[in-house]
Amino acid sequence: MSSRTQPTTGARTPVQTAALLVGAVFLLVGILGFIPGITTDYDSMKFASHDSGAELLGIFQISILHNLVHLAFGVAGLAMSRSASAARTYLLAGGAIYLVLWLYGLIIGHDSAANFVPLNTADDWLHFFLGIGMIALGALLTRRTATGTRRM
């Protein structure tokens, strides 16, 4: 096999690199959510409630729980980027979770007690694009080639 389809030992595959980068971004977002100034109305942040008035970059409604979820997704991405199959699983499953979160955000009322994460319209649509993007990365970076070998 060529080095394109079967990297040398220790080299990262494209899907591993994608999972690593996605995980790093989630970690960064989770950390930024705890920094006043980057998070507006920081003093109104709740642990988990639709009443949390804090917004990351003044756009995305967040809470302590929301930030912790981002941190957990980041750690998972970094850990799962260690193998191609785990990286693929991270991207596909993570993308599916984000699409479910998108649907959840569309179905529940933003002022409802069920909106405990919390989510606003900007979060909903970000979750949609994250879900589609993660699934696309997981699928496209590991698709089968014409010879039947999997690109990992």
Structural write-up:
The two termini are 12 Å apart. With 152 residues, this protein is mainly alpha-helical. Helices cover 53% and strands 4% of the residues. A hairpin with a 3-residue loop joins β2 (55-56) and β3 (60-61). The chain has helices spanning 14-32, 64-80, 84-107, 121-140; strands spanning 39-40, 55-56, 60-61.
Multimeric organization: single chain
In N-to-C order, the SSE pattern is HEEEHHH
Number of helices: 4
Order of strands across the biggest sheet? 1-2-3
How many strand elements? 3
Beta-strand residue percentage: under 5%
Give the C-alpha Rg: 17 Å
Topology diagram in text:
Elements: H1 14-32, E1 39-40, E2 55-56, E3 60-61, H2 64-80, H3 84-107, H4 121-140
Antiparallel strand pairs: 1-2, 2-3
Helix pairs in contact: 1-2, 1-3, 2-3, 3-4
Observed structural traits:
152 residues, 4% strand, 53% helix, disordered N terminus, 3 strands, three-stranded antiparallel sheet, mainly alpha
Summarize the structure.
The chain is mainly α and 152 residues long. The chain has helices at residues 14-32, 64-80, 84-107, 121-140, and strands at 39-40, 55-56, 60-61.
